[in-house]
Amino acid sequence: MKKFSHVIVRRPCRAMVEGITSGEYPGKPDYDLALKQHDDYIEALKKCQVDVTILPADERYPDSCFVEDPAVITKNCAIITNPGAPSRNGEKEEITGAVRKFFSDEDIERIEAPGTLEGGDVMMVGDHFYVGLSARTNEEGIRQFKEILEKHGMTCSQVPLEKVLHLKTGVNYLEDGNMLVSGEFVTKEEFQKYNLVEIPEEEAYAANCIWVNDTVIVPEGYPAVLEAVKKLGYRTLTVDTSEYRKLDGGLSCLSLRF
């Protein structure tokens, strides 16, 4: 099933080594290795029958390779978010030009202050969007997001987060009713209607896989997750994201898929 035709990515900048991190995965990123891993990520996406728009590195924003956060793209509209991390807030202006190549101005919406919202807190399941209430996404941001979605014929529900940075840190939808879950998301009532595939604690990072046109891209080095995804019947590709993990980033963070 082909659902996505386009992907937007941004090359990592040298300043990424000073990006935001919780320290959960210690060490500073190796920039040269991060570039190679980004190359491999782009190649994996191309194997999934999508066109990839590659934006240049932006040294003003160390975390700007994580393009998922400053925008959410749906089938009916694009929403420029208002990132909750102050050092990342300006990224919303830099992603707008790329989004305009695919959407008319009337179909580009914005989250306005005091609302904050980051795309890493947004998970699309058909025409419904789950949004994590987190340190980066507040209730006003979710209220605006819901209003925008309803205007464009879609729905939204809020999911309070207890431990993780972003919603998709611990739960990701693979289509066909299948959902990868770890940690606090294993028992969340909102997700019990799906076929939940529980990720072992030692491989929790790899809950952040991405489905792209019936292929699931899995972080390299997580055999239990890879086997679980294969058992669901998906074609799989693996990409090493070790340098992005040091910045609490994963596969979904590195692209906008639509």
UniProtKB/TrEMBL annotation:
Keywords: Hydrolase. One of its GO terms (molecular function) is amino acid binding. It holds the Pfam family DDAH_eukar. It comes from Candidatus Allocopromorpha excrementigallinarum. GO terms for biological process: arginine metabolic process; citrulline metabolic process; positive regulation of nitric oxide biosynthetic process. Signal peptide: none annotated. InterPro entries: DDAH-like. The keyword Hydrolase applies. It comes from the Bacteria. This is N(G),N(G)-dimethylarginine dimethylaminohydrolase. The lineage of its organism: Bacteria, Bacillati, Bacillota, Clostridia, Eubacteriales. The active site is at H166, C253. Belongs to the DDAH family.
